[in-house]
Amino acid sequence: MKKVFKVLSVGALALTLAACNSSATPTKDTSKKSDLTLEQVYDKAVERQADIKSVSATMEMSQKTKAGSGDQAMEIAMDSKMEMDVISDPLAAHITGSMTVPDMASEDKKTMDMPIDMYMKKEQGFFMKDPTTESWFKLPSEQFDAILEQTASSANAKEQLEQLKEFIGDFKFEQNDDAYILTLDAKGDKFKELIDSEMQKSMKDLGLEENPLDNITIDKINYVLQIDKETFDTEKMDMNFDLKMKVEDQEISTSTKSVVTYTEFNHLKTIDIPQDIIDNAATTPQ
Fold it and tell me: Is residue 16 part of a domain?
């Protein structure tokens, strides 16, 4: 990836380096002040991630999508909350939760809750519960590896931290008594190359060729990272994205807000899929 800082002027670069070498600004009522710089904190957080073999996480996400205009306008809102246990090597995960989606059969814009329950394990595959029949099915093996990798990445902050370090000079750097708070705001296409790279990787993993970002405009990207002062664990990551996509002659706008809270680092030794699920799962949804 081309370094975005290469296009900065000498003066702007000097300001960036100065910001990286400054300690975090204390928030109100902060009494335990640390003198570590932004780059030192960031490096320690990335280094800490290498030691994390398992983690539990809660992910809350809301997404609003608008398409069309006038009488043809349509808006869809979806909310989800998931609890995740993830082991990194060998990759394994158990995810439970629920998703609130529009009831397309309803004329008064009612919503319905869809429960989520799934297991993923490198040696055994991807098993998901069908909420309509209460039965389990197994995902085809050719799709499993890509989904497992993406799930593990979502529940582990290492990859996100490494990607965002290229923009370290753009972070607002604060601290309270317990944590460092790093905030990154961006508008326009400044970070499109970063997202484009990740999208291309995901599309390749899933065996798809077309990159949807070719027709996407990024209006806003916002990250807030919370890093523990003592352990340098990334305890929380807020991510907000506002995007517009051109599909044929229609513009679709999407606003996504997600909060991932990480807990219970290195507490899991194994994730076991119940044997009755393995024995009775269908190969496709019932």
Answer: no
